[in-house]
Amino acid sequence: MPKLSLPPQLMPKLKVEERTRSFKEVALGYDEEQARTEATRCLQCKVPKCVEGCPVNIEIPAFIKFIREGKFDEAIKKIKEKNSLPAICGRVCPQETQCMGKCVLGIKGTPVNIGALERFAADRERSVAVDKPDVAPHIGRKVAVVGSGPAGLTAAAELAKLGHDVTIFEALHAPGGVLMYGIPEFRMPKDIVMDEVRYVASLGVKVRTDVIIGKIVTLDELFKMGFEAVLLGTGAGLPSFLGVPGENLCGIYSANEFLIRVNMMKAYRFPEYDTPIKVGKRAAVIGGGNVAMDAARAALRLGGEVTVIYRRTDEEMPARREEVENAKDEGINFLFLAAPVRFLGDERGWVKKVECIQMKLGEPDDTGRRSPVPMEGSEFEVDADTVVVAIGQKPNPLAVRNEGRVKLTRYGTIVVNPETYETDLEGVFAAGDIVTGDATVISAMGAAKKAAEAIHKSIMKK
Amino acid sequence: MPNGFKVLKKEQLAPGIKRLVISAPLVARKARVGQFVILRVDEAGERFPLTLVDWDAKDGTITVIFQEVGVSTKKLGLLHVGDFVKDVFGPLGNPSEIENFGDVAVIGGGVGTALMYPQVSALKEAGNRVVSILGARTADLLLLEKELAALSDELFVSTDDGSKGYKGFTSDVLKGLLSNGRRFDYVFAVGPTPMMRAVAEVTRSYGIKTVVSLNPIMIDGTGMCGGCRVTIRGENRFACVDGPEFDAHHVDFRELMSRLRTYEEEEKTATCALEENLREMEAHA
């Protein structure tokens, strides 16, 4: 029986002093006892609100019950019925606004830490092999998935489970998309990403790296090769810049470049790995989202002092609270209500200062957040020899850039039929950030799952 | 591709300059003049771009020519025939605009004397009268001179030390031709950034359309990182997806040259580390 008196189990974390010079994962995960105790807190609601909050509708109370009973194999199987990448989601989903945000225990107290439990079940499976899920009899219809991030991996897994012959085409040298290039090791260990990719491959999915669709193989050629449907899951991988003077000075990185160097190219292990990165004594990170937190925390581990510069206040920061707290614990400074107006460099072309302008909050904008308004004449300078611009990513339409037949919005996202996920071009589907603009791992996965079902229906009609 | 892309031929063209023929059938099938590939030699390797010098769709091969200047090109140069390059990714970038301009000058400096080969070849094929101007520090470092001589209508050579041809820079040769009344409808330059800038300065006052192939630091090659951003006519452009060729008269060369020096120190560190590893390996062998 649930015991309301049981204390919520805190996620054990690496000590702060161990974090600042290491890329080891910060959140350490529950042990068995903690997991079972936390699972016991679940009220096993008859009409579970948490499931409504989950974009892929995992039967949360059911898997938690298995954990409570110590039936860990059953727990992970239950999760994997709905979610092929639980070790990832358990780590990077914003559970506080999804499943946990709906947990009735949260009304008066602390919700069940569903994310930590999902992660526990997934991590335990990594150490103890559990049977593969049932894969439907082979249908032998070929589906191409473009991109191997959260959307691509999910759609590929779903389609493979339905019996299709799926090939993922990844442009970069390693699969995983943003999980690989974007989210740092200390939040999303790359071994875990690779294990999840291996799991998807174990379902029969072929993964081809170094293949850029649209350049090396066109969509038409994919159809000629016998693919009956193509899913574009190419994500939001284009960097945004501020467009202010001095932004091309040396030492100024887009968040993408900074994180690709650190995560995918392992620049934090230079010169053991060949890709360098330069982080000076004072780094400034511009932005207030999860990517900004990742960049700031990576910069801290590689250099000296780090300051996050955000144009609104702490309250409006779109980053997960947990990540903001981690950043603060690690000693990252925050400068709120400030926006860069230009970067100043030395005679060698290296950035030395960020000139900012003081902002104040005005009326709420269409996102409901109060929009920042610059205060005239309030310019001031912040010293910085490294700057990371983390103000959002744009969709990457390279796969269809020269195609001309797939309709794009003015933001560069792909237009799809919201029911069928099909684009203007028959047989070509799209899901994830390439459709919505930059969002979360789980929302891309949720959409990819639905797109996979739509593709299945469409192919089977033929 | 579990092993990567096999090296089929290897040749030393000049001290520190090598030519590799690599098996990459999909790339070879789509390659066009002016495009490049991104390579990663091994698991610890950097991603770095090299312009395609030649390709053969039938044999499924591509050819790259490179100077061993940093850790990545040194590692690439250490591969033997039969070894594998971990990743070859491309073809990337926009193909060159090749048309019948009339009288054209193609200028290559250093390893750029090899990179100009596909340009000269395509421009000839399009019906242009092509004057090739090759330059290098010293005579030993001039590449593909014979091949270019056979393709071009006229060929000029310059070396910094005067060991062959005109003593000085390719831009001086071009300037000399222009001041002697020669007229060009189009100029293409590829090589070290200061050389391309010098060429741009020469042709600017004559109003000759001049295109350069830029070589900024690049990682993914798909528009993701923005590391290769260059200022063209005051606007940000990514060399990987918007280039690599741009109108020379609109390029902010000063910014490009400063950005190219970003990792000078780290290049030295990495090269030292590689050399130390090699010495250790030799000692154990």
Describe this structure as you would to a colleague.
The complex is a heterodimer of chains A (462) and B (285). By secondary structure, chain A is an alpha/beta fold. Chain A is 35% helix and 17% strand. Chain A contains 19 helices and 16 strands. A 5-stranded parallel β-sheet of chain A has the order 3-2-1-4-16. In chain A, β11 and β12 form a beta hairpin. In chain A, 55% of the residues are buried. The radius of gyration of chain B is 19 Å and the shape is globular. In chain B, β5 (54-56) and β6 (61-67) form a beta hairpin. In chain B, α3 packs parallel to α4. With 285 residues, chain B is an alpha/beta fold. Chain B has helices at residues 25-30, 71-78, 112-125, 145-151, 170-179, 193-204, 239-242, 253-260, 264-284, and strands at 5-14, 17-23, 36-40, 48-51, 54-56, 61-67, 84-85, 87-92, 103-109, 129-136, 154-159, 166-167, 186-190, 209-213, 229-232, 235-238, 245-247. At the A-B interface, β5 and α14 of A face α1, α2, β8, β15 and α8 of B.
Distance between the termini of chain B: 30 Å
Strand order of the largest sheet of chain A: 3-2-1-4-16
Helix and strand pattern of chain B: EEHEEEEHEEEHEHEEHEHEEEHEHH
Profile the largest sheet of chain B.
Answer: 7 strands, mixed
CATH architecture name of the largest domain in chain B: 3-Layer(aba) Sandwich
Q: How many H/I helical runs of chain A?
A: 19
What is the residue-averaged pLDDT of chain B?
95
- Named CATH topology of the largest domain in chain B: Rossmann fold
Number of strands of chain B: 17
| Adjacency order of strands in the biggest sheet of chain B | 12-11-10-9-13-14-17
Shape of chain B: globular
Largest sheet of chain A: 5 strands, parallel
Number of helices of chain B: 9
Q: How much is the radius of gyration of chain B in Å? A: 19 Å
Q: What general outline of chain A do the C-alpha atoms trace?
A: globular
Q: Which chains make the largest contact?
A: A-B, 43 and 45 residues
Radius of gyration of chain A: 23 Å
Q: Characterize the quaternary organization of these chains.
A: heterodimer
